[in-house]
Structure formats: C-alpha cells, structure tokens
Amino acid sequence: MRKSARFDIDRFTREVAEELDATLRDADRALAAQYPGDRGGRQPVHTVYLPADRYGARTAPEWGEQALEAIDAHADLFAELVADEEIVARVRHKLAEEPIEDLRIDFEDGYGARPDAAEDADAAAAGAALAQSRSDGTAPPFAGIRLKSLEAPTRGRAVRTCLTFLAALTDAAAGTDGAAGPTTAQPILRGFVITLPKVTSVEQVEAMVHVCERAEQALKLAPVRFEIQVETPQSILGPDGTALVARMIHAADGRCTALHYGTYDYSALCGIAAPYQSLAHPVADHAKLVMQAAAAGTGVRLSDGSTNRLPVGDAAAVRRGWEEHLRLVRRSLERGYYQGWDLHPAQLPTRYAATFAFFREGLPDATRRLRDYVQRTASAVLDEPATARALADYALRALHCGAATTGELERATTLDAVRLTELARPGR
Q1: How far, in whole angstroms, is CA 112 from its chain's centroid?
Q2: Looking at the whole model, is its pTM more than 0.90?
Q3: Which part of the chain is CATH 3.20.20.60?
Q4: Quick one: CA torsion of 279, 280, 283, 285, rounded to 10 degrees?
Q5: Segment 37-53, tens digit of pLDDT
Q6: Using one digit for the tens of pLDDT, what is the confidence trace for 282-310?
Q7: Pairing of the two strands 142-146 and 102-106
Q8: CATH architecture of structural domain 46-358
Q9: What is the rounded distance in angstroms from the CA atom of residue 291 to the CA atom of residue 279?
Q10: Inter-axis angle of helices 348-375 and 406-413, nearest 10
Q11: Quick one: which of 109, 221, 249, 95 has its CA closest to 165?
C-alpha cells in the first residue's frame, strides 16, 4: 500500500474513483447509448435510385448489361480516362457479377404524384419483384424504398405506400397470401431500408419511428430501419441555431442507418442558381461537414448525393459526363463520404473505376503501415490506435467493394479479414 506523509494514496484513489463513478454513471450510459461507434458490416459504395414503375426483378443485371454496353461503345475513351488496365478489368468483372450494391425503389421525386390506384399497384408490384429477385439471386445486397415525405400533403400517401410495399414483399417471400411471420420476414428485411426524404423537423423522425413500429405490429416484421435524407436547410440549422440533424439521429431510436445528402433540393432551397448546383458547391460542403460531425460515433453512415450530368449522347457528351463523375466520386471519397447516388447505368463504370482507383492507390502504404503497427516494426510513421483503426477500415472497404481480394490483403498485412475487422471495429 502506497502512503504519503499526509494521506493513504490507495484509499484516496479508490474513494474518489467511486465518487466519480457515481457522478458520471448517467453520462456514461448516455455516451454508450448515443455513440456506440461504427455498427460494423459492409457499407455499399453507392445507391441507385430508380422510379418504382421502372423497377423489375431483373433490374440489377439489366443495369449491369447496359453499363457494359456503355463501356463497349466507348472502350478507348473509358480506357483513356481510367488509365489502368487492371482497374478496367475489375470494373468489367464487377458489372458482370454485382452491378448494383444498393438499390432504392423510388416513390418520391423520381416517381412523382400519381393516382392512388396507380401507386398502390406499383408498390405491390415492386415489393413482389424485390422478393422475386432475392429468390432468384439477382437482387443487390442492399435495397429499399424511398417514400414521399411526411409533410402534411403527402403523409397519408407515404404511409400507404410503405405498408403496401412491405405487405407485398413479405407475402411474396413467405409464398402465401397472408401476413408473413417474423421468422419468414426477417431474412427478406436483411439489408432493407426505407428512405425518408425532405425531413424538416425532429418530430418527423419520431413519426417515422411510429410508422415502423406500426408496420412491424401489423405485418409481424423484424425491426424496420430507415435513413434520413438531408435535403432542407432546416435539417442542418434549426430555428434555435442548433444542428437539427444531430437531434434527428438520436430521435430515431436506433433505427436510423444513414444520412443521405440531397444535392439539388438542398442547393435550390439555399438559393443556388441551377448551373451551379453541385455536390461540390460550398453550401453542399457545409451541410456535409455538419452531417459528418453529427453522425460521428453514432453508427449512422453517410452518403453523398448525385450528379445529374449523365454520360449519354455523342462521344463528347459521354466524355464530359464520365470526367465529371470520376472527379466528384473521388472528391467524396477523399472527404470521408464512401457512398453516393447513381442515376443511370452509364454512371456505374465511373463509380467503380473511381472507387477502385481510390483504394488501390492507397493500399500499398496503408497495408505497410498496418503490418508495421501490428508487428511493432520500426517505421517512418508512428501510427496511433485511432489511425490503425482507420487504416484497417480502409482495407476492409477495399475488400467489400471488390477493389482488393482477401489474399492480397492478407499477404500485405499478415491479417485475415476477421483480424482486420477486429482492428477496425474493436469491441464489435
């Protein structure tokens, strides 16, 4: 026992620590609940938005075929822009095997306002088609729907579409005309998410939690998750001057999986003229920085928005579209936004080319530093645990999207995928 001339240090330390534990107990619990860290698992590199009436069970392979046709039609141009034969080969393989990582069946802006009977029919058909594609093995690993907003004019329609789609999805998955039980519904909801657009208040997020709860009760579903689309300045800066998006995350009761930036709605509402609306505009960067800080440590992921310049038409138009998309995808990745929106099959080649290049260019340095870190090897860079986590996460993202293989990473780092995951997400 250590003692001082004036007091017993061990006893003093124990007593003060116990006092602090009692004082900070509630704060500790709140921190653990509100900031659990990354939830682990794969994050898709993009989300494809497709109007519901154009969605079918074979949408994903059809987009892959159309993306490959776009490359074939402009093979020399694509090779010139990518400037790496290996990446071109990896892109072609990706488009043949897994062309879409995340698909959002859209009932909002891309779909528009239609008669109730038409939207009912499209919602039921889309739910059945998603179930069919999962049964056939052609569905993307992640999928979901975007509802209309919970603003008063479209609130009822959003709820009806949500229930209609989920009922059709689970009925088709169960192979019956009745409600699916929780054991049959759970697999079909794996990787499924609902996108809530144009959120303007914390109360709308709380209302979406209620919608999910009622849907689960009515259809005997496993927990339903949703993502928040940040498309309005109100979600970034509330009337009291606070970042409302931070409160929205915590109001979601653990159901919010991601924040998606909406390029054009947000820019327009900020008064940006149409020719200058872009996910690279300063108003977009400000919004996304606030989103990034609000989501940090919560397990809620981030997605950038879209670019509406499509690589279609003559060779000059395709060049402009591909060059812009390559640049903007790379820009987002460098800023920690590992996901974005794609609106057309011809954007898939540059989505994957930019993503693969980003990871493959950085892997030699990242894997060397990881190996030095785990082996305690002397190095010119002295990485701390937080940086080692980031390096391992970088390697895992490369693996998940197809930029690297398990064998490549294991040879470079001496770590298998399990150990990489443990290092990237300790405690998970």
Answers
A1: 24
A2: yes
A3: 46-358
A4: 100
A5: 888 889 999 999 999 99
A6: 999 999 999 999 999 999 999 999 999 99
A7: parallel
A8: Alpha-Beta Barrel (3.20)
A9: 14
A10: 30
A11: 221
